[in-house]
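Backbone-to-sequence.
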């Protein structure tokens, strides 16, 4: 039995609330159980220097955890002077995931930055951030459409993410912290609405896992991401 009493293929309760920021062009608050992430999308009329003059845009992301998003207070990374390696890795993952479903040529020479701030953490913060970031990005692009800044088809698909792992010898979907902290294996899957694979991150925490176990985790991830994409569609409809 999982600590949360969920079935092996059952997501935590997921909710998405749009337009939670007064100032951002797109925003949402996403909750995966007790993991809560605020996602805001900001439009800028500029691109990175290495993209100037090429006629295409850029989508990037920043990620952070608030000091009391965890049991004990974390120091703000600004007080350390630089983001941690974990933070850099996660925000690059979010950026790659979003760029996989955006036609950058149709964005024009503009940059959209999606900020993902973890308000409360209970496992799966990066997967919640990616799933919520798509909604914030969608609303930002809709804001641009209303002002005739872009045409249709800038967004080519949905993208969402979920964790899977092996807990007490069994593959399970959407690990919370109690499972993640003692799992035999932990993986993160990022996929598009059409089922394309954007990225897979997998780690054996104790002993190596088999191809069969990986295939079972992949099947669980496809099911979970299908449910998350359905929720995204319902949210923006």
């Amino acid at each position: 039995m999982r600590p949360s009493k969920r079935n092996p293929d059952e997501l935590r309760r997921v909710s998405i609330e749009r337009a939670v920021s007064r100032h951002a062009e797109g925003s949402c608050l996403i909750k995966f159980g007790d993991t809560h992430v605020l996602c805001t999308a900001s439009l800028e009329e500029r691109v990175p220097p290495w993209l100037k003059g090429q006629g295409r845009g850029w989508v990037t992301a920043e990620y952070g955890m608030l000091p009391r998003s965890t049991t004990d207070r974390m120091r703000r990374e600004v007080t350390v002077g630089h983001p941690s390696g974990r933070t850099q890795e996660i925000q690059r993952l979010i950026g790659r995931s979003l760029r996989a479903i955006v036609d950058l040529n149709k964005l024009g020479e503009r940059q959209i930055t999606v900020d993902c701030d973890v308000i409360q953490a209970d496992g799966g913060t990066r997967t919640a951030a990616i799933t919520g970031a798509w909604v914030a990005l969608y609303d930002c692009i809709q804001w641009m459409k209303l002002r005739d800044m872009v045409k249709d088809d800038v967004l080519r698909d949905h993208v969402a993410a979920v964790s899977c792992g092996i807990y007490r010898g069994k593959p399970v979907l959407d690990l919370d912290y109690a499972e993640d902290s003692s799992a035999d294996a932990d993986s993160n899957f990022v996929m598009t609405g059409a089922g394309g694979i954007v990225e897979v991150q997998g780690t054996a925490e104790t002993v190596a896992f088999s191809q069969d176990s990986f295939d079972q985790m992949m099947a669980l991830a496809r099911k979970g991401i299908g449910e998350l994409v359905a929720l995204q569609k319902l949210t923006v409809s």
